[in-house]
Amino acid sequence: MKKIYIGAETIISPLGEDVRKNFAAIRDNRSGITLISNAGFNDDAVYLAKFLTVTPTFASLIAATLNLVSDQLDPTIVSSGKTILIVSSTKGALDQDISDQFGKSMTVITEQFGLKNQPIVISNACISGVLAINAARNFIDAGLYDHAVVVGCDLISDFVVYGFQSLFAISDKPCTPFDTLRNGITMGEGCGAVVVSNTASIFNNSPLGLLPGTTANDANHISGPSRTGEGLYRTVKKTMEINNLVADDFDFISAHGTATVFNDEMESIAFDRLGLNHVPLNSLKGYFGHTLGAAGVIETAASMQMMRENLLVKSLGFEEQGTTKELNIIKKNTTADLNTILKTASGFGGGNASLVIAKR
Amino acid sequence: MSRITAYCHLNEEYCSVNGAILAERDKESHDSWFKQLYKEQEFAYPKFHKMDALSQAGFIASELIKRANPKIVNGYADDEIALLFGNRFSSADTDSRFRTSYTENGAPSPALFVYTLPNIVLGEIAILNKWYGENMFVVLPKFAPEFFVNYTEILISTGSKAVFCGWLDITADRTNVFVFLVESEAEEGIDCNVPNLREYSGI
Amino acid sequence: MDNLKEDLKKQIIEQLNLEEVQVADIGDDDLLFSTDGLGLDSIDALELIVLLEKFHGIQVTNPDEGKEAFLSINTLSDYIHKRKG
Question: What is the number of structural domains in chain A?
Fold first, then answer.
């Protein structure tokens, strides 16, 4: 199997305008979630992880992120003919133009950064980020590109807030993934990026290793998870098999953990079926909220920082087990050797995705 | 060699499978074009009526391809058929309808909201067929044969044995759908390469 | 009383996009969420909540309230009367 690297992890979110500021916040167990007045359909106040001072546009947020990424790489990489930009997002620039959510932004970004290949937008609900990182690896492994910049970006809008309210899916307090009193999601916004490459030397800071990942569909319901966690079970099982990994090989799981009653229960069932109950696990959504299309990338970036610092970060919001199957939820920051980690995501449309990052 | 073993075109005028016209739109009908097809082709799947346009198109095209290629129904394990779809405008049409539900019709509609993601069509196809395989929905400025050829090869080299591919160009004023089936071990069919895809798609 | 039940059936067919269903097909006691009845699902339940607000001015703040109320046209009609006092 070819060695493929992942590095230059970047985050711009309400917790900070670069990855170190974001990591400092999560290390301090600080949340980006605040109560925003008049945010709901009935002008009700809603807990959101929102940019408080200025809300960037979709394109400007991606551009700011790409600038930070560029600073962490050999300067020729972003505009190289052997580089592909993959953007993962659910609603793109919907607030600016509902009829063209991605086209104009991709044109602007392509021009601004002199991209040589047409960016690919992956819009696959909440698994988009993990799927995009896997797709990046697949492209490079197939020899189609040498490098891929994967950017996950989504912004909060009335559209999505009202939508999730109509599903009664929004929590009336900051979300508490896996906790017994959890009652819904907290929406978030932000932009995360990682660079995937077959060349370690393009990175200013030593990269980590990215192993092959997979996706699997639940084949059950378009907006509710399978009660047996079938899709999540299958993707993680496939990912473990192709990498010859067993449950004991994992030092940490960055789960999806949206804090809805059904999602977290489903994850506990799937992880239990896989024998992963004892692996230290968290959801990062207590810090970032649910950033939809950006989640897979933001949370992977944060997990990479955890690996570099050998720090298991507390699963913010969790106090008491709230799932039928027991999981090893991280209750406070703990130092640990983090050599091999699993990241999972599940989403509307029945999608489930998983990836593995390992220290070289 | 991967081969395209069946394909379906669906536009404002007609629906064709493997190049042969199956049905032409009755412009006088009160029914939407997709509903007309659903009735005429005698599908029996009441959930169809809750679907948005993208999902209805994906349903019709994939079902017609299955009818043209019945062997695929039992010929693969439940995770060996991948779904790889794309378009230019994501779920914009459905998104506008959802927005109207709360700006003009009094309250955000949950039944519309759950379709405001372009990948839901993949979920609908997976649910109907109980397919647990790989899925991906991409947004590109135009139909890109290179992308589909490359990514179907990637999917096939990583464990899928067949890929349902689709380009669902559906907006308020246009319908141009092209769905095709690629099988990795087909003995007959059209070689899955860029010139062929360009030609047979007609896009 | 009967008008409400008939209205409810029409509203449900319209709001929930039940294409192949006529008012006459829905019995007052039919189990709306059973596959032997109308076969409604969890999203339909949420649309019923929208329907109650839109057509009857009743706000349901907790979807669990719906579980009992939405069993059939009869229980739905009783619920509306109860809420309207």
Answer: 2
Domain ranges of chain C: 2-84
Instruction: Give the helix, strand, coil percentages of chain A, each rounded to 5.
Output: 30, 25, 45
ipTM for the assembly: 0.98
The residue from A202, A223, A241 where one domain ends is: A202
Are A188 and A293 members of one domain?
no
**What CATH number corresponds to the domain at position A10?**
3.40.47.10
CATH 3.30.2010.10: does it fit domain B3-201?
A: no
- Using a CB-CB cut-off of 8 Å, the residues of chain B touching C47 are 109-111
List all residues 6 or more positions away from A53 whose beta carbon is below 8 Å from its beta carbon.
none
Instruction: Give CATH for domain C2-84.
Output: 1.10.1200.10
- Whether residue C32 contacts residue C71, with contact meaning beta carbons closer than 8 Å, is answered with yes
Q: Give the closest of B49, B107, B111 to C53, CB-based.
A: B107
Q: Which H helix or E strand runs over A122? A: strand A120-122
Of the candidates C32, A42, C46, C55, the one whose C-alpha atom is nearest the C-alpha of residue B109 is C46
Closest to A86 in 3D by CA, of A115, A126, A64, A125: A115
- pLDDT, tens digit only, all 203 positions of chain B: 899 999 999 999 999 999 999 999 999 999 999 999 999 999 999 899 999 999 999 999 999 999 999 999 899 999 999 999 999 999 999 999 999 999 999 999 999 999 999 999 999 999 999 999 999 999 999 999 999 999 999 999 999 999 999 999 999 889 999 999 999 999 999 999 999 999 999 99
CA distance B21 to chain A (A): 31
Residue C80 C-alpha, separation from nearest chain B C-alpha, in angstroms: 19
- Among the candidates A150, A169, A202, a domain finishes at A202
pTM of the model: 0.97
**Chain B hits for C50, Cβ within 8 Å:** 107, 109-110
**Contact flag A120-B99 (C-beta cutoff 8 Å):** no
Supply the range of the domain harboring residue A173. Answer: 5-202
